Amino acid sequence: MNKPNRKLDALNYHSKGRPGKIQVVPTKPTNSQRDLTMAYSPGVAEPCLKIAENVDDVYKYTAKGNLVAVISNGTAVLGLGNIGPEASKPVMEGKGLLFKIYADIDVFDLELNAKSVDEFVNIVKALEPTFGGVNLEDISAPTCFEIERRLKAEMNIPVMHDDQHGTAIISGAALMNACELQDKKLSEIKMVVNGAGAAAVSCSKMYLSLGVKVENLVMFDINGVLDKNRTDLDDIRMQFATNRTDVKTLSDAMKGADVFIGLSAGNVVSPDMLRSMAPNPIVFAMANPNPEIDYETGSATRDDLIMATGRSDFPNQVNNVLGFPFIFRGALDVRATAINEEMKIAAAYAIAELTKKPVPEAVNTAYNAKNLKFGKDYIIPKPMDQRLLTEVSIAVAKAAVESGVARKVITDWDAYAEELQGRIGKDNRLLRNIAVSAKQNPKRVVFAEADNYKILRAAQIVKDEGIATPILLGNADKINQIIEETELELGDVAIIDPRADNVPQIDDYAKYLYQKRQRRGVTMHEARKLLITDRNYYGACMVQFGEADALISGLTKNYVNVIKPALQIIGTEKGVNRVAGMYLMVTPKGPVFFGDTTVNVDPTVQELVDITVLIERSVRQFNISPRVALLSYSNFGSNDGPIPEGTREAVKILHEKYPDMIVDGEMQANFAINSELLKDNFPFSTLNGTPANTLIFPNLESGNIAYKLLQELGGAEAVGPILLGLKKSVHVLQLGSSVREIVNMVTIAVLDAQQKAGNN
Ligand SMILES: NC(=O)C1=CN([C@@H]2O[C@H](COP(=O)(O)OP(=O)(O)OC[C@H]3O[C@@H](n4cnc5c(N)ncnc54)[C@H](OP(=O)(O)O)[C@@H]3O)[C@@H](O)[C@H]2O)C=CC1
Ligand SMILES: CC(=O)C(=O)O
Ligand SMILES: [Mg+2]
């Protein structure tokens, strides 16, 4: 199944650079001699003594609480069989990588030369002081059952054999959803399970607990059907032995079956077998890396099929990766002594339910999909869906607390959710808070470029999330065609085409525009023409006349083309004589505001003052206390030249006219954001103590370059440009913005409209 170049790519991926996939990274400073005396002798003796006094302090002073052992003996590696511990190491390193990227859990992978139950159990038990949890992996049945049973009984930290329970949880969730879509009852389905090993047995037990009847299940191992005449079956497998006498082969069993579960080996199911199944069948071919029947063949065989595999390169990846990172996250965070049935069932339901919620745009983008939604090709969430971390870990942690296995009780679940969000990538707390505020009072947002897929997708998201009521401007046929082709659900949203006959209020708008621009060369005829031909004029009039609360445009147009109509029709706020643009940069160190990044090319001293005042006020609207630095290449007079001198002059005016404003400069950017550096060198600065969170650039060039570099090289998320100074909420997208960026801008536009409505 793997194409030759894929095989080579995979080998290169593992061998290039530092061999393997994971490394150990220090978490404390190690730059100075002092740091090292803390990290090692003599400083390290102090936490040692504390732990010796109270063994639970090991969680306080060491990495134990966030450290999981991924342990295998290489006896059932994926579907590759008993290939030995060394050969299993790439898989175990892979699990370590997934634990880290999805749930911020650190992993040591341990590949043991230990085949017997006693040997394996004794080694793992002795590791208890080091780890917060143990993930057993790719150990063949039946040894794995006894190993897990003993370790759970004899250890006081959570132990889970992932191939058994991780797989059971995920496939259980997928099965519930697939049955719902195919209109089948779990209690009535006829199921064939191919494989009778660790994964198959545990998954089947889970299906029984979800409602499947054991008499409706037929299981196979490599020797054929498990029936009551077999004399080679242990007790665990005997419970799945069928009474049916008409079934000898897999082909026999597949006839009329509703569900096929493959946890065996690659390519053992034929298209004919699929054809013989009942109407609307479900096939989970989960053997890795090669499924029992490959996705393309299976899904081409019949239209009424729901097909899933364990692979990431096809729709419906039913793989334990959706479970183990989040299950252990929840278990570690409440310091659970075990992962029990309650926690597993809670995880399965959380995963099943998450599939039915609207999919964040970031997930669509990550998978190059247009509109993922619950259906035949999306029966289970995608592993890169960051909501899994909160939804599943919280469900697991709550179940641990409620079932009495938690040693640490969480009471503030919202704070725990915030903590989880902060663990992965950027901390988007501010963006989330903005979205929450927007949803409290959603506004009507007119989209001037609605004949564009990205705009329509964003409109769908803000509508679904209750952030805004979209109004779409553009050719209705074209918009409806895109909606239909991309299966968006915007049927009830207002579409206005300014070019059509009988456009609402066009006469009033034309009269208004004519009155405003008659002494600037605009005739009545031209005013009407502008409104019909340029949707930025029509959209701005809608906002001015109160037919909409905010305007979003600029995805396909130059900035000036949007801002000009807004300035002509709506104008600036009272007492404000210019507009400016600001970016909210979501950085790993928190939010930082950049301005002016958009409008004023080469501001004079007075313009710099005006821009600073506008931006400072706007930062307050995000419930953040602004600490403003005016940037230059000079620190407090260290260099001459028009830029530092102008900036210095602007700071002087700001200090005089706005004594309460926390603002200083001119200063270099590193001094502005490194408060230690500033304090050591310029202790007189009014910014001392805390870094600046609002950076004013001396000109458009420097502001624009800075935010783009931070976005591309620093991995910061840029939200903006947020247009400041207009009387009403109008916001201009960057040319080619992503759907996520558009959604962010709409959210900001709604907040802006709320605030402007409050001020008027
Ligand atoms: N998608 C996912 O998340 C997961 C997928 N898997 C996949 O499931 C498979 C089994 O893994 P696991 O349970 O850990 O391994 P085990 O070695 O414990 O079990 C393998 C089972 O498959 C049976 N088997 C092998 N070949 C055939 C065949 N041709 N026909 C019928 N049965 C067969 C074996 O029979 P016998 O007992 O007679 O040897 C055994 O019962 C692997 O391919 C693995 O990659 C596993 C975990 C998670
Ligand atoms: C996914 C997994 O754990 C396996 O195939 O073994
Ligand atoms: Mg496995």
UniProtKB/TrEMBL annotation:
The keyword rRNA-binding does not apply. The active site is at K95 (proton acceptor). One of its GO terms (molecular function) is acyltransferase activity. GO terms for biological process: malate metabolic process. Its cofactor is Mn(2+); Mg(2+). NADP(+) binds at V77, L78, G79, L80, G81, N82, I83, G84, N288. The keyword NADP applies. Keywords: Metal-binding, Multifunctional enzyme, NADP, Oxidoreductase. SMART domains: malic, Malic_M. InterPro entries: Aminoacid_DH-like_N_sf, Malate_Decarboxylase, Malic_N_dom, Malic_N_dom_sf, Malic_NAD-bd, Malic_NAD-bd_bact_type, ME_PTA, NAD(P)-bd_dom_sf. This is NADP-dependent malic enzyme. Residues 164-401 form the Malic enzyme NAD-binding domain.
